[in-house]
Amino acid sequence: MKILFISPHYRSFLQVQGGGEQRTYLFIKALTMFADVDFLAFHSAAGFDELPINVVYQQDVCDDVKSSKLQKWLPVFKFWDTKALFPVSESRADIVQKIVQETDYDLIVTHYIPRAMEFDLLRYARKLWIDVDDLPEDKFLWMAKSATSRSSRIRYWLLSKIAKIHTKAIVKKIQKATFPNPNVVENCQGVYLPNIPFYSTTCTAADFKRVEKRIFFVGSLGYKPNYMGINYFLENIYPLLLKKQPDTQFYIAGTMDQNDTAFERWTAYPNVHLLGFVDDLQAEYEKSRVVLVPIYNGAGTNIKVVEALQMNRACAVSEFVTRGFSIFFEDKKDYFVAHSNEEYIEILDKLLTDEKLNNQTAENGRKKVQQHFSFAAFAAKVKEIFISIDC
Predict the structure, then answer these.
(1) Are 217 and 291 in contact (CB under 8 A)?
(2) Distances in whole angstroms, Cα of residue 13 to Cα of each of 131, 229, 318, 363
(3) What is the reported pTM?
(4) Cα separation of 88 and 108, whole Å?
(5) Domains identified in the chain and CATH numbers
(6) Tell me: the pLDDT tens digits for 327-355?
(7) Cα separation values, 388 from 60, 147, 376, 384, Å
(8) How far, in Å, CA of 296 to CA of 63, rounded?
């Protein structure tokens, strides 16, 4: 079987740090276990030396998609036009077409619907496999919620509705689409493929005699839903938690703009520590009692939940975070789900003080991750999808 994998990322994979890059890497690794994979990238350093792939193109190619005020509203004015919403890069599409003409591929695979459209891959619809991951409609929706102007909020809200229609139409045309959330799978061409932790390491159980009352969050703070979630937690939940547990420590790992006013605002709260980028996340998990995931909007699934459970840590999450996970993890058994600010405080109070409850919840969650979210389970699912490709 011959597959062309087209990379959707325009920065180096050498360190494989971002969630999108990690999923792409794992996807390619799974494909190489049963297929011959050619790799095409529009960046000069892919960093896949350890994988058995054949690099057919790997160069920096400038983005030639136009951007203007009119272009921002064009998808609304031409709501029926897929290319108005997801513009084609002629230079990149031409490179793809030339390579596809040279080899008879069984499948063409890429990550994200907007990127697939940017490369004009619908012309190969019956050979096309898109790992959808973040739904465009969800991305536009959280952009609408975080927009500062009324016109932007309206525009993004309209784009969300338009994107939902186009996504359904695109998935119906192509050979296969994989979704990380089983609740949003579309028609026969759509299949569930979980997001899984990139690392397989784990931690010892939280020893309350050794580990202080530390709650931990990890995630890029340049990603708006993460930023907004932490900001909301600090403003509305954390001060009330401190009244119950004044010696609580809150550690936040993730890159952010040091000039952002939030840096000073957040560190003004008692016992809040902004770590920035962390080389050894396992060490931070080891020193924590509870992992916090206070996210209230966004696209895709929150892989940080599965990563926390993989690390054998009790996890307290907002209701929004359970999208894609609720059929696997049980509330109050494998993790704790907060449906209100008051419930968040109650959950954190329990998990910070009840060692038996904390450890049992963490162990339950870790076992579920091993069962449903290991690389072996992920790779087996990819192969199963490939075998049933004529659905």
Answers:
(1) yes
(2) 18, 27, 31, 32
(3) 0.84
(4) 17
(5) 2-196+375-387 (3.40.50.2000), 214-372 (3.40.50.2000)
(6) 889 999 999 999 999 999 999 999 999 99
(7) 35, 42, 18, 6
(8) 32
